[in-house]
Amino acid sequence: MFGPSQQEWTFQGWNWEAFAAVSLGALVHHPALHAVAMDYFQGALGGVKILREQGCRRIALIVDSSLEARTGHRWRGGYLAGMEGKGRIYPGNTGDAADLKQWARAEKIDGALTISLFVKKSLHSLPIRWVFLNNLGPDGVSPCLALDPAWIGSEGVRLLHHLLLRKESGLPTEPKMTTIMGSWKNLPPC
Asked: Which of 121, 148, 154, 123 is nearest to 134 (CA)?
C-alpha cells in the first residue's frame, strides 16, 4: 500500500507480478495502480451548490495550484461543472495576500471554495461566503467537507485484502479508483 504523496511517482524495475498494490490518494502514479481517495470532484460540486443556495453568483476556486493538482484536478473539475464552465479560478500564489485581495476585488467575488484559512484571513474585509474543501473547516464556522483520513486507509486495506484473497497480483489491466464522499459540516440553516 502506497500512502498519499505530494507528486506522482514512477515505479521502475518492480516485479509487479509479486505484488498486489493499492495507492492512497487521488494522484495517478506510473504505472497506474488501484487507488482510494476522497471524492474531490463531488466535494467541489457540492460546495458550489451550497454557495449558490446562499445567493452567491460570483464564486471562486482559491486553492494553491500544486495542491489542486494533487487531486488530479478533481476540485477544478467539480467546481467548473458546478459553475457550468464559467468559473473564476485564482491564478496566483495563494500565499500572496495583496495579490489575492486585488484579484478578488477585481473579480467581485461573493463566494469562495478553498482549503486555506490564510486565504480567508487575507480576504476577511471582503463580503465573501466560504466553503472549505478539507477536513474540519479550519475556522469552525464555514461549511466544510469532512472525512476522517482513516476511512481512506481502511478502504485501501479492504481493497488490498480482496486482491490478496483472490490472488490478484501484478498491475491492474483497468485500474480503479474508489472515492469516498465526505460529509458536510457547519451548513447554514435552510
From this structure: 148
pLDDT in tens, 122-174: 999 999 999 999 876 677 888 999 898 899 999 999 999 999 999 999 999 99
Number of domains in the chain: 2
C-alpha to C-alpha distances, 112 to 51, 98, 102, 106, 176, nearest whole angstrom = 8, 17, 15, 14, 31
CATH code of residue 74: 3.40.50.2300
23 part of a folded domain: yes
Distance of alpha carbon 68 from alpha carbon 40, whole angstroms = 10
Which three cell numbers, joined as nine digits, stand for 33? 495502480
Domain that includes residue 165, residue range: 16-38+148-183
Tell me if 93 sits within 8 A of 99, measured CB to CB.
Answer: yes
pTM reported for the whole predicted model: 0.89
| β pairing state of 59-62 and 111-114 | parallel
**Is position 189 within any domain?**
no
Phi/psi for 62 (5° steps) reads -125, 90
